[in-house]
Write a structure and sequence with these properties.
heterodimer, A: mainly alpha, 77% helix, B: alpha/beta, Rossmann fold, 2 domains, 6-stranded mixed beta sheet, 5-stranded mixed beta sheet, 8 helices
């Protein structure tokens, strides 16, 4: 409780650190903010070419939107994944990268992790905005569904922050976690319906049974499906999916925070 | 004391000394255990209170735990046992410009660093010109700090930290930054804060600072409070111990034992020829060194040097410059320096003695701080600090 109050009283620091992350991310590059667009665009181009054209993955048909476009289908899943990957990678190194701060000045250390995740959240929101515009070009008017997406963004931010907190604390003690995280993220990308529709998995393992249940337990699967419901299909995600995501996000945030507070005690010495 | 704003209560802090530091998961799993380490207690049951509005010094040798204590007060380190309490807004000058980002401009860094130290945007807007003016960086404030010289960097860092306007200021000897002009400004600002009733805790090696700036002090040795009390007394006790340590080191040093000539004793005699360690300004005194020459030494030069406890040389007369020559010394004897009126002012002084060859190129024996004596107020009566009286005469016309 006391930590919470303290964090609340350091809002300005949070904003400043977030701005620092954002500024330093793009300050040195000629293209500046364009980079934040260029990266997902390149990934989109590669995946759309490989999976959409070469491998001929059939995207779902928007229900009720009627949209059938692999690039759009892909983006609805790829953007949330990119936020997850960037948030975890950057959040994990946020303490190590700011060792001089942690060793010399006191402030609630959670703020560092939070600000790092927040800086990627800003990029994510901009990307979502661009996606909404492009979707409008393809005939999907997403305006009524924006509140749903914002709710999902809030939940996903909690989810990412929770894991990032635990990882940031652990990475101080185990520096090679960074390599491990790279592997995990790779597996995570293909374990969720991002570059392919769920229908492909259901075609293999059926629509019921433990295999598909396990597949659906993956929070990323549910997140991607929910984002797609709102932006691609233009419908409300199933309420049990939303309930699951709320539960998982809250639990992960609390667990991550608890882990962080356990690891926090000797941070300044171990860095 | 109920008005204590900083309180350490039975603080214990343990550090781990790693033998094999392994910071990887792989190695941990392979070796079934994270690392081999020894524990050592950097702070053992340290308690003290700093009354509101006072200036408090933490002193001790390197490794005595004083910086650890300061970091614990600053909440950077968490005590393993005991509690630390600081009331009011705290600013710590542990490292200047910590958190500056090289790519960002001076202006952006001022806001960022200010926020880290706990200032709101509005407070920073109000103080921005002061901060930049104090650092003297008006012309460079919009260029990235990576282009700053190290002096500029530190000046800006100090300027932000000092303008936080804290209730409690923690300082770790960082005042020795920048050129003299800037140091003077820093000291003035600290004095201002002191005068306006802020509480200051400082870690320092300079006993001059302790005596002139601080009200109270705590002396830490190997993590334990050796002495706590009035700043001047603690500083004296500390310096006394340093003295003993040096003498022991001297005695253990074989190079000083086998020489042709050795100085065996140093004394201060009062006007009646009695040994003393306490004299008054204006007294007639004699400094005497006893020597012992194992073999004949030709044309020796004897010198006395009087220094302050901080090591500032007050005066250093020798027999050569005084044109007192002796062809040869052998066996035991004494050298006297007679001072008809001692013009040193209130304080402690150390006497260093040395015997060299005629050209002052080879030292037969040098004995640093062989003896310490106190000077108490006398005539001329001056109590505004300083080390010597010029014994001048006023006339008002």
């Amino acid at each position: 409780m006391q930590t919470l109050r303290e964090i609340a009283s350091r809002r300005e620091l949070f904003v400043n650190l977030t701005l620092r992350e954002l500024r330093s991310k793009y300050k040195r590059s000629v293209l500046g903010w364009a980079w934040s667009m260029l990266n997902p665009l390149t990934t989109l181009l590669i995946y759309a070419t490989v999976f959409g054209i070469f491998l001929r993955v059939e995207p779902d048909v928007g229900d009720p939107s009627g949209l059938k476009n692999f690039a759009m289908f892909l983006m609805c899943g790829l953007l949330p994944y990119t936020f997850l990957a960037n948030g975890l990678n950057a959040g994990m190194t946020s303490l190590i990268g700011n060792a001089n701060l942690v060793q010399k000045v006191y402030f609630p250390r959670e703020i560092l992790v939070g600000a790092t995740v927040a800086s990627w959240l800003v990029s994510f929101l901009i990307e979502l905005g661009v996606l909404a515009l492009v979707l409008a070009f393809f005939g999907n008017i997403v305006v009524p569904w924006v509140p749903v997406v914002l709710l999902l963004v809030v939940l996903q931010t909690m989810f990412v922050t929770g894991i990032a907190l635990a990882l940031a604390g652990a990475a101080v003690y185990f520096r090679d976690l960074q390599h491990l995280l790279g592997l995990v993220l790779q597996v995570w990308l293909y374990s969720a319906p991002i570059v392919y529709p769920v229908a492909l998995v259901e075609g293999e393992v059926g629509t019921s049974g433990w295999k598909i249940t396990l597949y659906n337990l993956n929070p990323l699967t549910r997140f991607v499906e929910a984002y797609r419901d709102a932006f691609y299909h233009l419908r409300l995600p199933p309420l049990d999916d939303l309930a699951y995501l709320v539960g998982v996000s809250v639990a992960v945030l609390l667990a991550g925070w608890w882990a962080f507070s356990r690891l926090e005690g000797r941070l300044a010495e171990e860095l | 004391m109920s008005d204590a704003v900083v309180r350490a209560d039975g603080v214990w802090k343990r550090f781990r000394l790693y033998h094999e530091r392994n910071q990887s998961l792989k190695a941990t799993i392979m070796r079934r255990g994270r690392a081999r380490y020894e524990e050592f207690w950097a702070l053992k049951d340290v308690s003290f209170e700093v009354p509101a509005g006072s200036t408090f010094a933490l002193i001790g040798h390197n490794g005595s735990g004083k910086s650890t204590m300061l970091k614990t007060l600053a909440r950077i380190l968490r005590p393993d046992k005991g509690t630390v309490e600081v009331k009011g807004k705290m600013s710590a000058l542990l490292e200047l410009g910590a958190g500056f980002h090289p790519e960002l401009s001076g202006r952006e860094n001022v806001y960022l660093n200010g926020a880290i130290l706990g200032l709101s945007k509005r407070e920073l807007d109000r103080r921005f010109d002061d901060i930049v003016g104090f650092a003297g960086l008006e012309r460079f404030i919009d260029s990235p700090v990576k282009n700053y010289s190290s002096g500029m960097y530190v000046r800006l860092g100090f300027s932000v930290a000092i303008n936080v306007d804290p209730d409690v200021l923690l300082i770790d000897e960082v005042l020795a930054v920048g050129d003299e002009e800037f140091q003077r400004k820093c000291l003035e600002r600290v004095a201002d804060l002191r005068a306006s009733g802020r509480t200051i805790v400082v870690v320092t090696h300079s006993m001059q600072t302790v005596r002139s700036l601080c009200d109270r002090a705590v002396w830490l040795e190997n993590g334990v409070v050796r002495e706590e009390g009035e700043a001047g007394e603690v500083a004296d006790a500390y310096l006394g111990q340093v003295q003993v340590d040096i003498q022991q080191a001297e005695a253990a040093d074989p190079s000083s034992r086998w020489s042709q000539l050795r100085i065996t004793q140093v004394e201060l005699l009062d006007s009646r020829g009695r040994p003393t360690t306490r004299v008054a300004t204006g007294d007639a005194v004699t400094f005497r060194m006893h020597y012992e020459a194992a073999e004949p030494v030709r044309n020796p030069v004897f010198s006395f040097a009087i220094t302050t406890p901080d090591g500032m040389l007050v005066t250093g007369p020798n027999t050569k410059e005084a044109e007192v020559f002796v062809d040869k010394v052998e066996g035991e004897g004494t050298v006297d320096l007679h001072v008809p009126r001692l013009l040193l002012l209130l304080g402690n002084y150390d006497v260093t003695v040395e015997c060299t060859n005629d050209s002052v190129t080879h030292s037969y024996h040098r004995w640093p701080r062989a003896m310490r004596f106190d000077v108490v107020p006398g005539v001329p009566h001056e109590t505004y600090g300083g080390v010597v009286s010029l014994d001048g005469r006023f006339s008002i016309n």
